[in-house]
Amino acid sequence: MFIERPNPVRRIREEFSVHPCVALTGPRQCGKSTLAGRIAAEDPASTYFDLEAGVDRRRLATPEQTLAPLEGLVVIDEIQRDPSLFETIRVLVDRPPDSARFLLLGSASPRLVRGVSESLAGRVGLVDLGGFQLGEVDAGDWRRLWTRGGFPRSYLARGDRRSFLWRRSFARTFLERDIPQLGITIPADRLRRFWTMIAHYHGQKWNAAEFARALGTGEATARRYLDILTGAFMVRALPPWFENLRKRQVKAPKVYVRDTGLLHVLLGLSRAEELAGHHKVGASFEGFAVEQLLGGLDTRDAYFWATHGGAELDLLVLREGRRYGFECKLADAPGTTRSMRVALKDLDLSHLWIVYPGEEAYPLDDRISALPISQAGHVDRLL
After folding, report:
1. Tell me, what's the pLDDT at 243?
2. What is the reported pLDDT for 282?
3. What is the C-alpha to C-alpha distance for residues 337 and 30, in angstroms, rounded to an integer?
4. Is the dihedral of CA 161, 162, 164, 165 positive or negative?
5. Is the pLDDT of residue 249 over 70?
6. Can you spell out the DSSP letters for 202-227?
């Protein structure tokens, strides 16, 4: 079953209108190859290389001879496995005439980041791809997406048990195979312990000292582990927003496991019924809503805000000089709170939406509205 993903396709085409190369990055098994295959199928002159296939690695053993005659779209999957290709591609795209475009697929590894920043600076557009979003699947089926997460094989699995088994296997493979392939030498058991700790802190402020004590390491090591999982698209560290207010504001990021399906595996929750009775169910919904909102808004100007006095805003988004706020509440009929009104005033928000699991959108005040989670994938239409 193929699910259309119009937003990533649109972003890739926009980047190609400016750059001869586009790097499509994201975690393994999130659908990069499938999406690239669909785009390549639209170009009769396209060529596809997969560096996990021995025959393609041999074809690219002499990259300039192989790539130079090609026209149309050239897709190179798992490009981080051969960093030397970045220099060859730079030489080719700088030669007139520019008859080929390069779509480069890979995980966010140090090799890929270094290759893009050093060899292809100014020549490559960057597009991140995660799991399925509410704008891509049936919005009425949002509970399934929340429970199983957005990885295609998990979301589309026949039954919750098969979905859980796939996610459990994915987590183990990520730690034991993918992380070493990125050139990172950390014992899998230690990194899993850290990842599990993040799951139990899901939706809370990062505290390097507390993580370091639990791991028996220094704070710098704990921050390094966080950077690794953030760079591999497994964890989101949502940065804090702070400005010159007469209030002490939180200046540590808020951490989430980006895919709620993996969050539930790390928490040992295999069924929706187990999630419903778990003490992290509210935080799980918050993280799910934040990811769907960010996917629908397609922005990097996103933060959370909190003061030491207790006022807090789950998500602050900046758009065209205006500020918009989002609170995520697992409640049947959410209402306004003092914290929301403080955020509305202190941050000068143009509007604040309360994202909740209901079905109706309705106003609560002049600048505060309730928004069903099913509409989060198209929230950009409200701004």
Report:
1. 83
2. 97
3. 38
4. positive
5. yes
6. TTEE--HHHHHHHHTS-HHHHHHHHH
Q: How many CA atoms lie within 13 A of 81 on its CB side?
A: 16
Residue 97 has pLDDT above 80, yes or no: no
Same domain, 101 and 148: no
Strand partners, 103: 22, 75
The reply to whether 85 and 189 lie within a common domain is no
Q: Which amino acid is at 56?
A: D
201 lies in the same domain as 318: yes
Do both 59 and 81 map to the same domain?
yes
Q: Taking residues 263-268, what's their average pLDDT? A: 97
End-to-end CA distance of the chain: 33
Domain count of the fold of the chain? 2
State the residue range of the domain holding 246.
139-382
- Where a domain ends, among 100, 128, 156? 128
For residue 158, is pLDDT > 90?
Answer: yes
The closest of 251, 26, 283 to 132, measured between CA atoms, is 26
Q: Which residue has the tokens 């990069």?
A: 32
Q: 277 and 158 in one domain?
A: yes
- Whole-model pTM: value is 0.93
Where are the alpha helices (H) located in 255-374, listed in sequence order? 260-266, 272-276, 281-297, 338-346
Q: How far apart are CA 207 and CA 212, in angstroms?
A: 9
pLDDT, tens digit, 9 for 90 and up, residues 101-143: 999 998 766 566 666 767 788 889 989 999 999 989 998 899 9
Contacts of 209 (CB under 8 A, 6+ apart): 219
Q: How far apart are CA 383 and CA 377, in angstroms?
A: 13
10, 226, 236, 253, 264 from 230: Cα distances, Å: 25, 6, 6, 12, 18
Q: What residues are paired with 383 via a beta bridge?
A: none
Which of 74-88, 143-157, 267-281, 356-370 shows the lowest mean pLDDT across its residues? Answer: 74-88
Neighbours of 184 (CB within 10 A): 16
Query: Chain-wide mean pLDDT for the chain?
Result: 92
